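Purpose: get a first structural picture of the assembly so the mutagenesis plan has something to point at.
Setup: two entries, given in the order below. No constraints added.
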Amino acid sequence: MNNKAKILIIEDELEIRKFLLMTLRANDYNPIEAKNGREAISQIIGNNPDLIILDLGLPDKDGQEIIIELREWCKIPIIVLSARDSEQEKVKALENGADDYLTKPFSAAELMARIKVALRNSAKQNSNVSHLYKFNGLEIDFAARLVKLEGKEIKLTPIEYKLLTTLAHNAGKVITHTQLMNAVWGKRANDDNSYLRIHTQHLREKLNDDPMNPKFIITIPSVGYKIAY
Amino acid sequence: MQVQTLLKSNFARFATAFGIVGICTIICLPLRDKVAASSLPMIYIIGVVIAASKLGIGPSIFSSILSVIAFNYYFTQPYHSLDFYDNSYYFTFGVMFITSLLVGSMTAQMSKLLDISRKEEKETHILYDFALGLSTQNNPQKMMEFARDFIGNFFDAQIIFHLKNKKNTTEKLILLAINSNEAIGNSCKIEGNNSSLYVSAKIDNNDFVILQTIPNFKNNKFTRSQIILQQTFVSLLSSALKSAKATEDAARNKIESENEKLRNVLLSSLSHDLRTPLTIMNGKISNLLKYRKSLPRDGVNELTSLWHQLQKLQNFVANLLRMASISSGNLKLNTEYYTIAEIIGAAILRIEDTKGNRKILNSIDGQIPLVNVDGALIEQVVLNLLDNAISHTNDDGIIKIELCHNSRNIVICIKDDGNGIEDGQEKLIFERFKTTSSNHDSQKGGTGLGLAICKGIIEAHGGTIIAKSNSPQKGASFEFTLPLPKVKNE
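Result (structure tokens, whole complex):
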């Protein structure tokens, strides 16, 4: 492929930036860099990257604010890096519009996996051709509103269907509890997430998905759910 | 002292009164023919006042009567007889008697009051000295020493202090003194106790100080007022001890909390600063490993070993940070509803890479209700317990996770078939930086924080965590409980 995906690294630590540049180059991406919020904006406008890796702890600007500002005018996928192991911070970043997050220290392999998922999801959104989710024997036909497990159709309630498809549309991406509840129940969604748990439990039973050993729906405690991809 | 004791005996007092009247008579005799007889009773009244002020009410009445008789006998015509010619003497006798009686009784009363107030003043003075002395002692030990000398000197007695807890005192007399809240020993006939007096006062809930007084003087009984004074001494001492104890506690708490704060600030800033270089090292090693084909075999081995050590270091730093936030006391629980199975599932997923060939089995007893917990923290608990199980089992080991619940809790038990826990270590392993003594093998790499973190998190949720060895099978079990949410009343 001639067109390497262009990835913008927004990170103030020189050594981490160097490692990211090297890793991305080695994995056949085209990385560009910015060491603060101001540089980042001009890089995004000037170079139109395909993906952004954003460190939340920048010297000149709060990372969360950058996400909010970016989301006002662009859909470029954002992967957040954080030095703090704080679930609330992750949830905030995701709800502000980030696509994924990684807590320092992370491995190159983890980062590559996240980049792949984020790029695929954004490509799918742009092409609008994803009518099908297929994984591990589970098949969802969005157009026909049909869910099959090992070739056999499964009957889902509307809520279960909505839950499953919300996750499947963003396969591999973490959807926060609030995002999921808003998608299923709309703005009436209650703060109490016990309904979400119960419906997810039923959905898992129908998909024959053991919560202790999940094949499809993966719980990220204190953050949300994602569907395996 | 001798005069005082002499005056105490009744006979002596009346004899003295008699003597005073005698002296008045001797003074008056030379004046008998020079002064009008009706003036002489004044001198007797002076005598009565003196008798009243020194000897009390009884001798004063006695001396009044005696004065009238003496006056009649010596100073009314005919002399040396109780007869008299002038009938107006009836009046003189009457006035003399009533006056001396009134003046005498008033004087006696006043002098009694004076005595009492002098005594009170003295007691107040002593108590003041005692309290002042106590307040200059800066620790309980010195307070007791001071009190022992002071009270001992004051009562001319030998003093023993007992500091006792009500719950574990077996000595009969002391327990009696504590429970009855009265002085024990002096008036109570108690076998085996001949002369000691016991007085108790409360320091704290169940802690008491008991004063045992053994008099040095022969007639070894204390008067009522002496006993009351002893009780006052003891209660003064107990409140001094109480405030000393409170001051000591407060000082210790302050130092402890300052230390704790400092430690936590240090821990968290250390952990933060460690993360950046760890990320860089992590990235660089994983990049280097990409070139494994062009590296010599030894180089790849070294690099792989470096990678494993780095993973351990990362784990340790993560644990340090978690511990810092737990022990700083401001651990905020971000609770949501979960099925416990999904949290365990998330933890199992995260140790997929480190579990090797070990099997993780599970059994669920019945339908487990939802719990309201901080998901990420409980995931950390399960992760640490699984990690612990992995590091204490062989590569082909079996780890079992059992779930059940009762009306109040859900119970999660993680069992392994490793080398178990040494006897007596079951509680110690939950303390910070404690690893089991059998765990010398650095390959197992326990940081000594994992289980302490588990305990901190579980206790913050209102649950409990225990460890035990499996018997007769081998291996260890870790069991923790999480309280079920209270049923809503809506």
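The two ends of chain B are 83 Å apart (CA to CA).
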